Amino acid sequence: MSPRPRATEQFLLAAKQSETTSLAELADTCEVVTGVSELIHQLQRERGLSNVYLGSQGQRLSAQREAQIERSREQETQLRRLLQQRYLESRRHSPSTRVLTRTALVMQALDEVDTLRQRIDQQQIDARLSTQAFSRLMAGLLSIVFEAADGAGDPSTTRALLALFNFMQGKEYAGQERAWAAFGFTTSEVNDDSRERLAGLRFAQQRCFDQFHSFATAEQQWQWQSIENAEVVAHFNKLREVIDALSDDDCVPADLGEVWYDLATQRIDLMHELERDLANHLLTLSQAQLSRAKQQLRDHEYQLLSVLSDSQDNYAEPPSLLLDLDAPLVPAGLAVQHDPSSEPAIGRTLYDLLKAQAEHLRQVSDELCETREALNERKLLERAKALLMKNLKLSEDDAYHRIQKRAMDSHMRVAEVCELLIEAAENAAGTAQ
Question: Mean of the pLDDT values across residues 125-129?
Fold first, then answer.
């Protein structure tokens, strides 16, 4: 009998090595995501303080803002160092083109933040433009998290990433609500337009937190419910009701801006505690998955070494994947009966490893399909926003709020509105041709 070719063993080991490498890269990416979440939190606080500062002509929260700028800079330095180490210097990491492009855009935006701060210092920018500038930076940072989730190949880690991403997105809308209302209270300008914007931000928060809930663990869901039931959140919701009850002619005390900022900040700080727990869970999970894969690789190497070290006299052909009705290569209609359990032990070892790996890949693929819907909805939103920005000459912020308002008014999901917009644009393009 001719010696058995080594290609099967080599490719099987290569598959396990590839999985281990991918999980190592994913663990690095999860560390980056944690750094991104910390920087976003600091920038969110700076954005809110800057709006009170601008609205009061530099008279309120000046010292707090200066201290917060230092915290933002410190966190930015840490993230820059981490991105350099993980994406440029690491030998084991090969980030995707999309991740590197998103990161490059974020680096450019971060380079411009000090210029924005100087304009705020000198009262050379209004709160609307300042808020939009900070929000665009936050959106860029969040896009790094989204790309991490979109590129993750491990189902459990993908779910944890999606739970964190949706929670971070909801917290960002909470930060925008804090910033816009703080400016409105400080300047005593709360009108129909601002109330509509704030209502849209509440709607967006709820949508994100609902999606977070669908990917969160039972403990994480309980933590979120505890935040919603907190006393400070009850006080915050009462201030929301005050906003809803105001008319354009009502005089709003400027001091209410600081009260609002303080309550909104306490609420967001509670969210940040859960955000950190989500990030720590993600890191722990990714490291556990990497350790598991490394152990499986060692087990595979040991088992294959045992097979190859047996004498040629004991060699028997392994069970045929083509003759096993349960094997992944066999078409459903192949009418062949075969009992692989009757094969000699040496052949069985390799066969079992092959079949176990195929079953593992099938299970991973099935579980990933369940998480892809949320990622695809995000991509639909980006396409719909781009269409509105191009066709109606809207800013990204205005395009999103238009989509959001239509979803609210028509009681539809945002993804459904996006699908209708994309379909209408495609039909219009087809008619034009």
Answer: 92
In whole angstroms, give the CA distance from residue 185 to residue 169. 24
Helices (H) and strands (E) in the chain, counts: 13, 0
Res. 140 pLDDT band, cuts 50 70 90: very high
DSSP code string of 309-355: HS-GGG--PPPPTTT-TTSTTS-TT------GGGS-HHHHHHHHHHH
Nearest to 93 by CA among 28, 179, 138, 186: 28
Tell me, rounded to whole angstroms, the distance of Cα 414 from its chain centroid.
Answer: 17
Contact 375, 162 (CB under 8 A): yes
Structure token digits, residue 366 = 């099935």
What is the rounded average pLDDT of the residues 320-341? 44
What backbone torsions phi and psi does residue 122 show, to the nearest 5 degrees? Answer: -95, 10
- Average pLDDT on 113-121 reads 97
Q: What is the mean pLDDT of residues 237-259?
A: 83
The secondary element (H helix, E strand) that includes residue 175 is helix 155-186
Alpha carbon distance 415, 426 (integer Å): 16
- Predicted confidence at residue 389, as pLDDT, reads 85
CA 331, 333, 334, 339 dihedral sign is positive
DSSP label at 4?
P
CA angle at residue 253 from 247 to 257, to 5 degrees? 100
Task: Give the global pTM.
Answer: 0.78
Q: Find all residues with CB under 8 Å of 131, minimum gap 6, and list them.
A: 47, 51, 176, 179, 180, 183
